[in-house]
Amino acid sequence: MSAMAGGGPELVHDVDGIDPLDTARFGGKAAGLARMRRLGLRVPPAFVVETAACRFYRENGQRIPSGIVSECHVQMSRLESQTGKVFGRDDGVPLLVSVRSGAQISMPGMMDTVLNLGLDRRSVLSLAEACADPVFALDTWIRFWSMFSDIVLDVDSALLQDQIAEARRAAAGALDAASAARLEERIVAVLDAESGPVPLDPRDQLEAAARAVLDSWDSRRARLYREHHGISHDLGTAITVQAMVFGNLGRPAGSGVAFTRDPSTGAARLYGEYLPGGQGEEVVAGTKTPVKLEEAGLGLAPIAAELEAYGRRLEEEYRDALDIEFTVESGVLYLLQVRPAKRSAAAAVHIATAMVGEGLIEPAEAVRRVSAEQVKRLLSPEFDPDAVATARAGGRLLARGVPASPGHSSGRVALDADRAIEQAAGGACVILLRPTTSPQDLRGMLAAAAVVTARGGATSHAAVVSRALDKPCVVGCEDIEVRPDERAFFVDGRRVGEGEVVSVDGASGEILLGELPRRVPTRNVDRLSQILGWADALSQVSLWTEATSPPLPVDLARRTSSAGLGIVPLTDLFQAAGQLPVLLDAIARYDADPDADGSVIEEPLASATAAALGPLLAAAPDLPVDVRLPNLTSVRARAWVEKWTTLSPHLLMPLGATRLIDAYVRGVRAAATQASHQRLTILAAGITSAEELSEFAGLVGPDLAAGAVLQNPAVVADAPALAATGLPLWIDLAELVRTTLGRPEELLYTDNSFRLPPLLLSLLARLVGEGPRARVGVRLTGNSIASSSVLHDLGFRVFSSSAAQAGELRLLLGQHVLEEESP
Amino acid sequence: MTEEEFLALNSVYLKKIATGRAVAQATGLPEAVVGEVLAGAESESAGAVVDVGGGMLMLSEDGVRAVLGGYEARYADCRVDPAVEDWYQRFETLNKQFLEGVTAWQQDVGDMAKMDRLLKLVERQIRALASISERIPRYEAYAGRFSHAIDQVDTGATNYLVSPDVDSIHNIWFEFHEDILTVLGRPRDVAESAG
Hints:
The complex is a heterodimer.
Chain A: E1 12-14, H1 23-38, E2 46-49, H2 51-59, H3 66-83, E3 97-102, E4 114-117, H4 123-131, H5 134-152, H6 157-173, H7 177-195, H8 202-217, H9 220-229, E5 238-243, E6 254-259, E7 271-276, H10 280-285, E8 291-292, H11 301-318, E9 322-329, E10 332-340, H12 345-357, H13 363-368, H14 372-379, E11 382-383, H15 385-393, E12 397-400, E13 402-405, E14 408-414, H16 417-425, E15 430-434, H17 442-447, E16 450-453, H18 461-469, E17 473-475, E18 480-483, E19 488-491, E20 494-497, E21 501-505, E22 510-513, E23 518-519, H19 525-539, E24 542-545, H20 554-559, E25 564-569, H21 570-576, H22 580-592, H23 602-619, E26 625-628, H24 635-640, H25 649-652, H26 658-675, E27 680-685, H27 690-700, E28 705-710, H28 713-716, H29 719-725, E29 729-732, H30 733-741, H31 758-769, E30 776-779, H32 788-794, E31 798-801, H33 803-821
Parallel strand pairs in A: 14-15, 15-16, 16-17, 24-25, 24-31, 25-26, 26-27, 27-28, 28-29, 29-30, 30-31
Antiparallel strand pairs in A: 1-2, 2-5, 3-4, 3-5, 6-7, 6-9, 7-8, 9-10, 11-23, 12-22, 13-17, 14-21, 18-19, 19-20, 21-22
Chain B: H1 3-15, H2 20-27, H3 31-42, E1 49-51, E2 57-59, H4 61-75, H5 82-106, H6 112-132, H7 140-154, H8 159-162, H9 169-184, H10 189-194
Antiparallel strand pairs in B: 1-2
Helix pairs in contact in B: 1-2, 1-3, 1-4, 2-3, 5-6, 5-9, 6-7, 7-9
């Protein structure tokens, strides 16, 4: 190491001369630049201080060796001659550079980029003259000081901007030696007071920026990150210094961002924006109106054509859709940065499937390119556009606010958290409507399907928390006046009472009166099916679709190539068909008199069962259907069955209510016969042993298939005997977790640290280890899909989920297999 | 009101609704002490705290009055101190950037640069808190909570940025904002509609 202090191997390199694959030595950023320059792309020249310098700095008490400083000077001279500009002097067009940190792996807490380094009160005048644009020169200089202040000196740049506003205005009015000097004095005075002496010479500023990069390697956050991920502190960061080009110098000049594919639809065409004579950051910030690249006029055509050619070459190299930041200086196109383009969910799916078609990527890679979040977004139900148009035309548009969190929901208005919870507990969808929200309203927000506030903007509590909860939210509906005393809100004199139904469009910001039908949008469905099919091929999973509440998900199950409908709880079908009172009545009568006549127990219950199940079987004559019988020990039964605590104990025993089971089976048989359904299985719930399962199969009879839903550790522990029955089994994961740990699933997956307990894992491993003697599936609900990969590792290949979560789950399992293959 | 009573009741005031455990975590007081203090405040004679079910506590109107009186007694001098006012103005500047940063990140979850920039603002807030902890020593607890949340985010638990159901950065920030406004005796209203 001591050799590096002087006379040793060079530690500072022209980016053109480095090995783009050696990211450990040169960091990811410099390697990326080297790769682009090797492709023959025009990228402004740059040099890199390799990671060994960082190790030296750390081992020698934060000292930058003089050898490195002089090597940097040599490299700066090279940049000067390559660009024809001068650094830190005022006898020519000033050379400005960017300074970036760059480790092999990007990590939190590292220094951000400092841009525009190289200006002082003299060279800013040279820049103004060269560009014939004093405003641009001044903006460039202030931008440098803001970044230097924030990033190197750790002084809030908003504070700096505030305190130099007057001097800046004076300089903007007439930029000359005197006004520039006064502005610089003011900047230095503010920063000196905040952070101590501030370097004014660009060479010293460069060294300070380099030092900030090296210090950021040992920031608390970067160290914690490395320790957490087992990355050595000795790896070190490189420093990349790159010449900057100006979109204001010479003619033509300008800058912009180009996408190789349309980032909103994914269509393969050059897309982007160009700001003639402007700076790239301004395009990003949207402060000036740029020209659309795809509508390039004659003057822009050669640039667009050149970008298109670069784009094709880059896509072949990177095998992804890219976003290209570029600048044109004196008619020459430079590429500043190339990275995978951000894209909408629809574009992600479009691009991934199109690239497979073009032979650029393999199907497995396409599965990687789409996120579960994007799949969820594409499959989330939206208001029927025709219904929205009709509602608007019919004068049902109540208010328009600031769209704060996307999604569509209808529900009953609740004006406070208590009322929201109360209504939601009764099974209603609730829209929480408040003047503003605070943590006090959180319980109500959790219970609500959507949140609306009369005041506040996109950064308000309601907006931030709704986004965190992934619920539709509209804020700042200023026309809405909430009157809690009257239990109503008013819009232009129109009264809408608490409990009335409204519809909230979190994307458009509209609040409409009345309920609007929702449906899963069909656009993108074909391409999405392709991706999910590839994911299935990887995971070898067959996924069943739950049917817990109307509308019946039969169409959706078909479209998502579901293996079957299951688990279908008979109780839910009763509820949906309005037959719940029949069930409760039969239970009460049976409890009161075990010998009551069949005409008051079996007959009504069997016909209610047939009526509740009939529509589902008729809609899905070709799909396997697994129906679960009601379980009197469930949490719901306790809430619904009157006098549950005094029910005769034998009714609560597994298979204890034999007459009820007999009635359900009769009803199911009748419905199956009526619909000519051949692929139906009746599942017992709450059993505790394999023996009970065999007994249940006997009760069901030889003409119908029987199986069980396993809900407690006792029955799962009976694995060998269960498997020996050869009957289909489902694990109800949420219920099994609850019966094992004594806590409901909602309380377990609140952060990503929850893991299934070892006892459960070993029981499940034994069950699935019994081999394929029978079908064993796992029912996943809500957040428990987070455990799907662990279960897949154990060997489970059959799962069930709600229709809404099916797409997400299929993708996650496919991606999980890919992760296992290449860690 | 003892200091412990003030700390515990104030935490319920800032959180609006909280469990004893959350109060203990936020104040750094032992859970047993918090339990005792809040049980005392809940007793019929005191009536400052109301159990709304499930171990969730809220302040009664009397409780709110008691907390505001506690602020009055402790921070009357801060309200006329230009140094504290200056500190607060700087916080507001940072607050605006923070809320915009949160929103920008939420609209582009997965953008590591936006997340990193946001966390750097929180680190700045931690340093700012150190500079005022001499005047208001209990502000050190906020710094500790912010650091803990940053560590969680940096090691993969990004729900510690804005999730309402953990001691997330947005939760802590919201509480702190309420706190400094109450120290200065300002209404929340204006700040609330802005953020």
